[in-house]
Amino acid sequence: MGTHVIKMPDIGEGIAEVELSQWHVKVGDLVVEDQVLADVMTDKAMVDIPSPVHGKVIALGGQPGEVMAVGSVLISIEVEGAGNLKESDKPAPVAAKETPVATKVEAVVESKPAPAAPRPAAAVCQGPVVARQADERPLASPAVRKHALDLGIQLRLVRGSGPAGRVLHEDLEAYLAQGQSNASAPVAAAYAQRHDEEQIQVIGMRRKIAQRMQDATQRAAHFSYVEEIDVTAIEELRAHLNEKHGASRGKLTLLPFLVRALVVALRDFPQMNARYDDEAQVITRLGAVHVGVATQSDVGLMVPVVRHAEARSLWDSAAEISRLATAARNGKASRDELSGSTITLTSLGALGGIVSTPVLNLPEVAIVGVNKIVERPMVVKGQVVIRKMMNLSSSFDHRVVDGMDAALFIQAIRGLLEQPATLFVE
């Protein structure tokens, strides 16, 4: 038997160190070739580290949240044969780090295990209810806690018959059988004092998001501008196109129309499609429109990029937005797909609220935020009519974008969306 040492690979683009985000294996696990061992986080994306060999994990080179240098020992695997371990490759012992343990609340959702064999009736506690303190946490499995929640029983009132007073499923049934009223339990629980705490490590994607947001707000001179838009006409056009072509070309959301509006408006406002290098004091205006589309994923906010939006049709943009969003949510978006945007579009969809203040995606100088569509009575040509209204809440870098230019840019987008035929007039 030998040892195969896997070192932190060089991911490219001059990256000297990366953050170890998550292990998918532990010491003692058997792994096969191409199995994902760990996720590491660069400045742009999450990268999978696969195993090049079959074997057994014998040592891990770091803890989640640790920043590791390229070339440092990531993991050691016992393999058949000689392996590749050299004396210089032997990993230094890694001190175990104390990871804050989250204090779970009682409403933990977990599948209830198969019922155990019935216990003798004498073994089930038939004593009086227990008067525990509101902040005293009785011993019980997550499944029992979920069962108690479903039954409306406050666990601190139930005497446990298990080891060390642990509350069992049978104790819940006995509590109900004793005729204790469960009607007031939910009310009592709603007003009970709580003293639980939960500590969550800020690592991986969440750490990168925090760093980028802090950097953006500290370095850029943000200002926001909000404009109200009547989207009745473009929503009618979208419904018509979906009815006519949805089955063959796919359904259109509002996003590809917004991407098209950005492309057209940027022809007259090229200063918005730019990146600002504040260290070199250089503004780079780009002809290509690479639209970042802010996407929420399980690991946090990601911004996949629709490249060359200026050369895409509505359906092409829609398909690319859908593809990228799926890749981002599944953690499969590549570094190239998550970098290189020139302007960003962000939307909370139905949760978009009335007004928002988006944070710039540096080094970009503009971000366009979409709020939700609502029906409101509006005065049109002296008549009160119901129209579909939506706000654009957008932010700009005041170091390089003047307030008047920002207002005119958003008003240009407004004109395009309110008269949707102009989106396609060359």
TrEMBL record:
Residues 3-78 form the Lipoyl-binding domain. Its cofactor is (R)-lipoate. Gene3D superfamilies: 2.40.50.100, Chloramphenicol acetyltransferase-like domain, E3-binding domain. Its EC number is 2.3.1.-. GO terms for cellular component: cytoplasm. PANTHER family: DIHYDROLIPOAMIDE ACETYLTRANSFERASE COMPONENT OF PYRUVATE DEHYDROGENASE COMPLEX, LIPOAMIDE ACYLTRANSFERASE COMPONENT OF BRANCHED-CHAIN ALPHA-KETO ACID DEHYDROGENASE COMPLEX, MITOCHONDRIAL. Forms a 24-polypeptide structural core with octahedral symmetry. This is Dihydrolipoamide acetyltransferase component of pyruvate dehydrogenase complex.
